[in-house]
Amino acid sequence: MEKLKFKLYFIFLAIGFVLLALDVDVRTNMAYPHPYSNSEDVIGEFQFYNISSNYGAKCTYKFIDTSASKNDAKETSIQSETAKVSTDATQTKVIDKVFFDNIHIDIFNDLIGFVLIFIACIGLRKCNTVFSFASLCAFCGLFLHIILKSLPFIFNGLFLCNISMVLGIAYLGSIILTTFLFTRGLFSMCSDVCCRDERKWGKIAWFISMVLQILVTFVFWIGSDFGALKKLGYVTEAFLVFDIIMLWFILKRAYIYLERAYINSASTGK
């Protein structure tokens, strides 16, 4: 029975880690209850990057004259191809207005990932106190995820952009800290000398996953308006998932020691 429990927790951690790393958004037919309120206080790019990366957004563009001569400065819409601009003007394409897209749903939902990790860490907390902290971080990540997805129904405009960016950074931190804690807990369960290589390569694999997670988040944020960067984000995300799978293959090599540590802690009640 104890072996079955540990196997279940081990699988929960593996699936949960992959769900946190993999994001595949699907556009639904449901719209947000109100249109996005554009702000003139910041540039459209800042608003679009935050809204698009977190909730999905569309935008329109305009051309602005960035030539040295302010007297000849003009603005023209991207749709107005026949607009007349002075020959010495330098035109720059910028985002004009931002609009909410329909609600997007991640089919590899982080919510499920955090729930699985939370359950597994609660079950493994007798093995090591690190799992107790990991379960707390997983709960915080779960809470942040719910709050982050609920923001567009409560706030709007620049305040929504600012608070979603701040909470998004905190959310990324909760993912990194949660995975760090439960992998550290697993490594501490196989402290035998014979598992030295597994611990070394496992730590390297986790560190690579952390770097890739940060890179994917940044690339998708700024790639909201750059198709090439978004494609790079998909490639980086694929490498991230591959690295996590490799991490679990490494841990699988030490599975018998992890299982033994869990059974011993369960039998002693520690």
Overview of the structural elements:
63% of the residues lie in helices and 10% in strands. It has 270 residues and is mostly helical. The longest helix has 33 residues. The chain has a three-stranded antiparallel β-sheet with strand order 3-2-4. About 8% of the residues have low confidence.
Helical content band: 55-70%
Average pLDDT works out at 88
* Percent of residues in beta strands: 5-15%
Q: Counting H and I runs of at least 4 residues, what is the number of helices?
A: 8
Low-pLDDT runs of 5+ residues are 68-88
Q: How far is the first residue's CA from the last residue's CA?
A: 18 Å
What's the total count of β strands? Answer: 5
Give a concise summary.
By secondary structure, the protein is mainly α. Helix content is 63%, strand content 10%.
Features:
single chain; 270 residues; mainly alpha; three-stranded antiparallel sheet; two-stranded antiparallel ribbon; elongated
Ordered list of secondary-structure elements with their pairings:
Blueprint: H1 2-21, E1 25-27, H2 44-55, E2 57-65, E3 75-77, E4 91-100, E5 104-106, H3 110-124, H4 130-150, H5 157-189, H6 196-222, H7 227-253, H8 255-268
Antiparallel strand pairs: 1-5, 2-3, 2-4
Helix pairs in contact: 1-3, 1-7, 1-8, 2-5, 3-4, 4-5, 5-6, 6-7
